[in-house]
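Schema walk-through. Below, the input block comes first and the output block second. Nothing else is stored per chain. Lengths vary across the set, and this one has 132 residues.
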Amino acid sequence: MDKIIQFLAKNPTFYFATVEGDKPRVRPFGFFMKYNDKIYFGMGKHKASYRQVVANPNVEICTASAQGQWIRIKGTAVFDESEETMAKAFEVLPRLKQTYNAESGLTLANFYLKDGEAEIADMQGNFEKIRF
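--- output ---
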């Protein structure tokens, strides 16, 4: 799992794919954290992406490096609304508090991936599969 975390840390904008009905939806994301031996992500509960994941928790994440490597991560999103997880998210990325707070009324939804699988590959044909 550390290899996945390192790849995301070096390539902090990644693309998060969901399904709406029978159509794919992809958008840039940037927040992730390793917590309790899991990879967590977060999104606002007010967003369409949240509603899409609630309806269909099968998601995929992808990003690429400037050196021509890419990672594709898939799994089933499991929401974690514990206070401890929320506190950790705000510790990892304090600026989240600027958006998700009592004044704004917006709530962050944290989730981890169950039955996760990552594929790291490059243009030379190197390929590695990591289950987590």
